Amino acid sequence: MDELTTSSFKTTGSKWLLPVSDFFGFPLDQVNFLACQVFALGAAFWFRLYLSPQYANPVVRHAVATLFGLSFVIFCLGWYAVHISILVVVCYWILVTADIHNIHRYTMITAISYLTVCQVSRVFIYNYGILSTDFSGSKPSLIEYLSYNLNFLSILVGPCSHYKDYIDFIEGRHVQRRLRRLSGSNTGLNGFEKVPEPSPVAAVTRKLVICGVCMVLFLTLTKAFPVTYNVDSHFVNEAPFLTRLTYAFFSIQAARPKFYFAWTLADAINNAAGYGIKGVDETGQVSWDLISNLSIWGIETATSFKKFIDNWNIQTGVWLKTVCYDRAPCYPTALTFILSALWHGVYPGYYFTFITAIPITLAARAVRKNVRQYFLSSRPVKLGYDVVTWAATQLSICYTVMPFLLLAVEPTMQYYKSMYFHIHIISILTAIVLSQSHKPTGRSSSSNGTQPGPYHPHPQAQPELQPSNDNVKRN
After folding, report:
1. Which of 18, 75, 273, 287 could form a disulfide with 44 if both were Cys (CB 3.0 to 4.6 A apart)?
2. For residue 248, is pLDDT > 80?
């Protein structure tokens, strides 16, 4: 594991910034990534101001976005760009030649096969799973498809979005579709009046401030609480269980800022280009969170496993729910987590994490269904319940995601042995006991004819804020 954290970590990408990597002591691939994202932020402002739909043809905007994106991939990944390019072309060929009803099947086979070769394509796999639901009978041109998958706004870390939303953005309809109102609304505009384009500067600034805070936390807390110390032989053998449990909690908490930084910066880049308007909230303020990939507050205050997942990697969760959970003929929770592991890549730690999440999710669902109602009698009792469930959720998350960061089999097993597999045992027993005590009398239906309230392992698409007159797909 130590060689993964040194600046000499090998990369297939450009080595132009190797002196910077050696000077700061960061892996070269991380330096390349940050350099590209900083460049992308400036390019996004330029794209919005000087290559806006008023001044540039959509084909030009598609081409520029694609060329920038391919440049980033080559710079960061080197020859891996060949794999990504081939996958995009193959999936496009399938899309334009296969029957529309079989596109999901073919693209998922292609995607999963590719994952056995190269894990870096995970950003693109998300797109292929939802494309056929967005075309409304028409299929994209090659330049549209390349731009959607390879654009510089989301090529490295996402966030991903619906094809229709992206095309609306490129062709200049994004703002109008999201902000146009019915006559008599609080904007005073009717469905035929042009809505002034709001400035993203405030939203971008706010998200860049969050990035700055996350960077500081990464440089301090993450370095002070290395995850690998959880499997240090001296620490495992000498420290008592509660000490090891406490350190695991703080080390996982300290590992989160780098994810917060990457996803928030990517969100800010899209906003800087004028993309990401969700609507207008009750106070009349424009929301730029259409394609946001996380809610830091929701993550840190989550009182259930589901709430945590609902606020983490949101756009991927929407995809997983769309292509797997809602379509699985049986065992949707287990199949969704297994697909998520396949999507992430080939490291064994990913599979340990998502397979471990299956019994924890089932146990959390059973607790909420059978126990929660007994703690809603008063605010103090509910507060006490929330505190306990928050602690249980955070400790469960730490236990579950540790293999995701350790990656290999040996350190993962060493960690779980040091923890006596306690979360595995508790969650399995809880799920079994509570599932036996709660036998549903029948299958009820909601007013719209669908089964109500399943405990989804991944978030549902969030409703738009103040939807427009147009028939815009919900994200």
Report:
1. 273
2. yes
Q: Please write the tens of the pLDDT for every residue from 368-383.
A: 999 999 999 899 999 9
Answer for the pair 360, 337: CB distance below 8 angstroms, yes or no: no
Domain count of the fold of the chain: 3
269 and 354 assigned to the same domain: no
Cα-based angle 411, 412, 415 (whole degrees, multiple of 5): 85
**Is residue 463 very low, low, confident or very high in pLDDT (cuts 50, 70, 90)?**
very low
Same domain? 268 vs 381: no
Domain boundaries, position 426? 294-441+453-461
The better pLDDT of the pair 443, 340 is held by 340
267 with 299, same domain: the answer is no
**Reduced 3-state DSSP string for 228-273:** HHHHCHHHHHHCCHHHHHHHHHHHHHHHHHHHHHHHHHHHHHHHHC
Are 163 and 304 within one domain?
A: no
Residues designated as active site: 313, 344
Q: What is the pLDDT of residue 471?
A: 35
- pLDDT score of 20: 93
Burial class (CB in 10 A: 0-12, 13-18, 19+), 137: exposed
